[in-house]
């Protein structure tokens, strides 16, 4: 999964990127105002009801929530243990709904459309001599390269598993959690190095095609 | 700061490239140092041929050399002139006329979808997005890649990726295209096709390759070794000398002996 965008011809794909972002903003504000569990459950259900526009395999797209679960559990406990479980549930529902909605916009919007939609927001920067393309392109490139980074992490993970004896029941016996911790500790530095290298490559590719601000008109 | 730097170049340099300049590149005792390490030194030559091949062992400085030619790197000594203009004057404007195809197409794609990435070059030249996208689609169709337009680059075969990478550069209509080992990830058939396709391009090409089959029809070969120009001339002579050197070093090291720096 190197590319987040899912090809499709649904109404959500066809809706202009600018509208999608505005609606996302308004709905997110609205969701912040909802303060009861039934209301938020309804909002979450409505969000989930939108996902089938992605077509076959839409259920897999919900996995975006998976890496979030430790945070969600912590939020639930922080509110719940002092006695307010419903507040914890409220926050968790709110987060899930907003993440899923934003993800849906990412999945159905191409990056060039996204770039064209957010670039005008930065137009005032032109008054002080900064190209509005710079921040817009930076935002779009984050969306672009997060899945690439995830791919790098996966490759490192595989390299680790291929050579870690405990993965094959050999070596010293360790608890599962200790193994995970050890792996994370070992893989963090190479992951950072590869992330830096990736950013160098992207910068070079960008420079080779005229830089973030683009070519200025021919004299 | 970066934007300030850019604004300054805009003020001071209105480089007017002379695309008819012959030679298009002129190097006099050009050297390149990175972090105190000498990468290239004492390069004095002129480039004017339509097809120039570059050979040399890994780490010899080939990639750095062609990066000088489109402003990705600036020489730390000597003088470099591209299309009649000092390359240090306006390096940001150089890629407009000197396109660069990276060794790994995955390192070149800025946008994930084929037509987005091809259109990106046009928006960089100031064309509005819709117009650029339409032009990119037509361009892809014209080059027999219309069926790839809406596909994610990551899903393509290596040959298709390389083709898209070159088209993304070609659509900007550079006068020269630099190619850093474009064949390295291709199988024999895809390599052959790409080679024939490249041969038909009207642009001047500078191509790094390890495989002499890909240098067929080239007018001039540069052999770079340890950052210096070791050979320069017609393909038959230079490639023969290069082969002899490889043979000499291979036998020198003996079987199983890895010479320094060439693992």
From TrEMBL, chain A:
<dbReference type="InterPro" id="IPR003339">
    <property type="entry name" value="ABC/ECF_trnsptr_transmembrane"/>
</dbReference>
<keyword id="KW-1133">Transmembrane helix</keyword>
<feature type="transmembrane region" description="Helical">
    <location>
        <begin position="87"/>
        <end position="106"/>
    </location>
</feature>
<keyword id="KW-0812">Transmembrane</keyword>
<dbReference type="Pfam" id="PF02361">
    <property type="entry name" value="CbiQ"/>
</dbReference>
<comment type="similarity">
    <text>Belongs to the CbiQ family.</text>
</comment>
<feature type="transmembrane region" description="Helical">
    <location>
        <begin position="12"/>
        <end position="34"/>
    </location>
</feature>
<protein>
    <submittedName>
        <fullName>Energy-coupling factor transporter transmembrane component T family protein</fullName>
    </submittedName>
</protein>
<dbReference type="InterPro" id="IPR051611">
    <property type="entry name" value="ECF_transporter_component"/>
</dbReference>
<feature type="transmembrane region" description="Helical">
    <location>
        <begin position="40"/>
        <end position="59"/>
    </location>
</feature>
<keyword id="KW-0472">Membrane</keyword>
<feature type="transmembrane region" description="Helical">
    <location>
        <begin position="64"/>
        <end position="81"/>
    </location>
</feature>
<keyword id="KW-1003">Cell membrane</keyword>
From TrEMBL, chain B:
<keyword id="KW-0813">Transport</keyword>
<dbReference type="InterPro" id="IPR050095">
    <property type="entry name" value="ECF_ABC_transporter_ATP-bd"/>
</dbReference>
<keyword id="KW-0547">Nucleotide-binding</keyword>
<dbReference type="InterPro" id="IPR015856">
    <property type="entry name" value="ABC_transpr_CbiO/EcfA_su"/>
</dbReference>
<feature type="domain" description="ABC transporter">
    <location>
        <begin position="25"/>
        <end position="251"/>
    </location>
</feature>
<dbReference type="InterPro" id="IPR003593">
    <property type="entry name" value="AAA+_ATPase"/>
</dbReference>
<dbReference type="InterPro" id="IPR027417">
    <property type="entry name" value="P-loop_NTPase"/>
</dbReference>
<protein>
    <submittedName>
        <fullName>Energy-coupling factor ABC transporter ATP-binding protein</fullName>
    </submittedName>
</protein>
<dbReference type="Pfam" id="PF00005">
    <property type="entry name" value="ABC_tran"/>
</dbReference>
<dbReference type="InterPro" id="IPR003439">
    <property type="entry name" value="ABC_transporter-like_ATP-bd"/>
</dbReference>
<dbReference type="GO" id="GO:0005524">
    <property type="term" value="F:ATP binding"/>
</dbReference>
<comment type="similarity">
    <text>Belongs to the ABC transporter superfamily.</text>
</comment>
<keyword id="KW-0067">ATP-binding</keyword>
């Amino acid at each position: 999964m190197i590319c987040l965008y899912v090809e499709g011809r649904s109404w959500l794909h066809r809706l202009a990127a600018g509208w999608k972002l505005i609606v996302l903003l308004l709905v997110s504000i609205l969701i912040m105002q909802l303060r009861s569990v039934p209301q938020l459950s309804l909002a979450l259900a409505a969000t989930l009801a939108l996902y089938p526009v992605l077509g076959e395999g839409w259920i897999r797209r919900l996995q975006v929530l998976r890496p979030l679960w430790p945070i969600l559990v912590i939020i639930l406990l922080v509110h719940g243990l002092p006695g307010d479980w419903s507040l914890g549930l409220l926050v968790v529902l709110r987060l899930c709904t907003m993440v899923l909605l934003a993800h849906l916009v990412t999945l159905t919007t191409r990056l060039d459309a996204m770039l064209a939609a957010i670039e005008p927001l930065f137009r005032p920067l032109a008054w002080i001599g900064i190209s509005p393309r710079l921040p817009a392109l930076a935002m779009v490139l984050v969306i672009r390269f997060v899945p690439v980074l995830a791919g790098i992490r996966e490759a490192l993970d595989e390299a680790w598993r291929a050579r870690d004896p405990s993965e094959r029941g050999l070596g010293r016996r360790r608890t599962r959690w200790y193994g995970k911790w050890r792996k994370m500790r070992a893989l963090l530095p190479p992951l950072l190095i590869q992330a830096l290298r990736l950013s160098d490559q992207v910068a070079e590719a960008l420079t080779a095609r005229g830089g973030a601000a683009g070519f200025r008109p021919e004299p | 700061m970066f934007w300030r730097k850019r604004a300054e170049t805009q003020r001071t340099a209105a480089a007017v490239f002379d695309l008819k300049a012959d030679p298009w590149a002129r190097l006099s005792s050009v050297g390149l140092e990175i972090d105190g390490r000498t990468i290239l030194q004492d390069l004095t030559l002129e480039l004017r041929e339509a097809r120039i091949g570059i050979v040399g062992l890994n780490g010899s400085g080939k990639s750095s050399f062609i990066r000088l030619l489109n402003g990705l790197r600036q020489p730390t000594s000597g003088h470099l002139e591209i299309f009649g203009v000092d390359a240090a004057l306006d390096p940001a404007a150089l890629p407009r006329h000197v396109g660069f195809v990276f060794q790994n197409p995955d390192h070149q794609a800025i946008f994930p979808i084929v037509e987005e990435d091809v259109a990106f070059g046009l928006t960089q030249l100031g064309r509005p997005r819709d117009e650029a996208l339409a032009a990119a689609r037509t361009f892809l169709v014209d080059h027999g890649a219309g069926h790839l337009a809406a596909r994610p680059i990551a899903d393509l075969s290596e040959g298709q990726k390389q083709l898209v990478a070159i088209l993304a550069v070609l659509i900007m209509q550079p006068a020269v295209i630099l190619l850093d080992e474009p064949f390295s990830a291709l199988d024999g058939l895809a390599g052959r096709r790409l080679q024939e396709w490249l041969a038909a391009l009207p642009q001047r090409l500078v191509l790094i390759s390890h495989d002499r089959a890909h240098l067929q029809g080239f007018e001039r070969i540069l052999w770079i070794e340890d950052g210096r120009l070791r050979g320069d001339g017609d393909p038959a002579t230079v490639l023969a000398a290069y082969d002899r050197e490889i043979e000499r070093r291979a036998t020198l090291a003996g079987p199983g002996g890895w010479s320094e720096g060439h693992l």
